[in-house]
Design a protein that fits this description.
The structure is a single chain. The chain is α/β, with parallel strands linked by helices. The strands form three sheets. Strands 2-7-1-8-9 form a five-stranded parallel sheet. A hairpin with a 2-residue loop joins strand 5 and strand 6. Helix 1 runs parallel beside helix 10, helix 2 crosses helix 6 and helix 11 runs parallel beside helix 15. The N and C termini lie far apart (44 Å).
């Protein structure tokens, strides 16, 4: 997808937080009056643990509602989406299968997880640690800047609502809830062993791809993607794997699954008021039942025909971990049924 010149430009633009901040400051100044006039209405933040249907859900919402979302077209200057749109022109790249090998295709305008570049530029030194990602409360100035970032994305695409796919947002949910009191915090989840196996499979695949192409590893790190792969870093919640532990076994991912979802269930009251736990397995099993209910929750039309159930796999895992994760899964499903019926 990227030639030598493109790789050099991305290395310069994305590899420097100072340059990222500078492009944002210029863009913010250029569109100051327009940003003040833009209201942020009921944004949707899809955040959780990877491999729970986050990409498909993002595309379903993006296709059916008047949403604006970060996309690859904004690269390599994602914090200046309006200026770069003029400078970069209408580039065209044929849709191709993404690196996950799961049959999903994307192009420059597909909604993607680009937003984390903002957080890495402004607060990376606070939460990005060697071998792990720390939950933190964002600075007030950063939250104010993030609101302007969202307005810039809305302005660049003419959308009325902002749509975010960013799993790292589980590190800062309280800040998001306070900044956007009408937000939808959507947490999709799957049966723990199946999601853990999918994470393990993707981790192995990403490690192999990074070994073939070192630029890929750097590119994923610049975008803040640490879910799996050569630069995988676990979320630092109670019970999560320690930095440096072997991620080559399903037990690692089961522990991470349980730690993440227990932390989400224990979120402060202000966050819980905005949280919607979505059982992706149930959604795929009964799309005509839960699809319309999800559409009501997010106030956007959804075509559930694009949903597809994940493949089921078999594996041997620690019995104690399975039992603990099963208990957490039951609590998640209860929250799901309490909202979706």
């Amino acid at each position: 997808m990227y030639g030598r010149a493109d790789k050099l430009l991305h290395r310069i633009a994305l590899g420097s937080p100072a340059l990222l901040e500078a492009t944002f400051d210029i863009e913010r100044a250029l569109h100051g009056k327009q940003l003040k006039a833009l209201e942020i209405h009921r944004p949707v933040f899809i955040a959780g643990l990877a491999r729970a249907g986050t990409s498909i859900l993002t595309r379903l919402l993006h296709a059916g509602g008047d949403f604006a979302a970060p996309a690859y077209r904004q690269l390599p200057f994602p914090l200046a989406p309006n200026s770069w749109a003029r400078l970069g022109g209408k580039r065209h790249v044929e849709a191709r299968e993404r690196g996950h090998g799961d049959g999903l295709t994307h192009d420059l305008d597909s909604p993607e997880a680009i937003e984390e570049v903002f957080w890495r530029a402004f607060e990376g030194n606070r939460y990005l640690k060697r071998g792990e990602l720390l939950p933190i409360a964002p600075e007030k100035e950063t939250l104010a800047a993030f609101r302007d970032y969202i307005r810039l994305v809305l302005l660049s695409q003419g959308g009325t609502r902002y749509l975010s796919k960013n799993n790292n947002n589980i590190l800062r949910l309280e800040g998001l809830a306070s900044s956007f009191p009408d937000a939808v915090l959507l947490h999709p989840f799957r049966e723990p062993l199946q999601q853990a196996l999918s994470l393990l499979t993707q981790h192995r695949r990403a490690v192999a791809l990074a070994a073939e192409d070192p630029f890929r590893r750097r590119f994923m790190s610049w975008l803040g993607h640490h879910e799996f792969g050569a630069d995988q870093r676990p979320f630092r919640f109670d019970g999560a794997p320690e930095p440096g532990e072997d991620a080559g076994h399903v037990d690692y991912w089961l522990r991470l699954w349980d730690a993440v979802h227990r932390a989400l269930l224990a979120a402060p009251a202000a966050v819980q008021e905005r949280q919607f736990f979505l059982d992706y397995d149930a959604l795929c099993a009964a799309p005509r039942v839960y699809g319309p209910r999800l559409a009501v929750m997010v106030e956007a039309p959804i075509d559930p025909s694009a949903l597809r159930a994940p493949d089921l796999r078999e594996a041997v895992a620690d019995a104690g971990l399975l039992a603990r994760a099963g208990e957490t899964h039951a609590r998640l499903h209860a929250r799901f049924r309490g909202i979706f019926g």
